[in-house]
Design a protein that fits this description.
The chain is an alpha/beta fold and 118 residues long. It is built from five helices and seven strands; from the N terminus they run βαβαβββαβαβα. The strands form two sheets. A five-stranded parallel sheet has the order 2-1-3-6-7, sandwiched between helices. Strands 4-5 form a two-stranded antiparallel ribbon. It holds the Pfam family Response_reg.
Length: 118
């Protein structure tokens, strides 16, 4: 059964590119451009969440903190992505499991996903 990955990013170009590559790699992908959607997850929880720090109206770090504080979602690995130069400290402070600075190499992303979903 393929692993489910949710991409939450308000940049459609990134969402499309990452979704295509992950599906090609055999992952099942859902996407959202709205951070609030991530917090509404009840069933169909993903095996991993790719979360952009800056999303319209929502701060990915707040979303990550909320997910990590809920029993239902606290064990979902979160990889935060951002063009911000202080991504490392802010992602880890929010409880993310890993992070990537944009622009990133797909190979690097795939290695991180592989590590966190096995």
């Amino acid at each position: 059964m393929s692993k489910k990955i949710m991409i939450a990013d308000d940049d459609p170009g990134i969402v499309d590119a990452v979704e295509m590559i992950l599906e090609f790699e055999g992952y099942s992908v859902t996407t959202t451009v709205d951070g609030a959607t991530v917090l509404d997850m009840k069933q169909e929880l993903p095996d991993l969440l790719l979360l952009d720090i800056w999303m319209s109206g929502e701060d990915g770090r707040d979303i990550c903190r909320k997910l990590k504080s809920e029993t239902l979602t606290k064990n979902i690995p979160v990889i935060m992505i951002s063009a911000s130069h202080d991504i490392a400290s802010s992602a880890l402070a929010a409880g993310a499991d890993d992070f990537l600075a944009k622009p990133f190499e797909m190979d690097e992303l795939l290695k991180k996903i592989e590590r966190l979903t096995h």
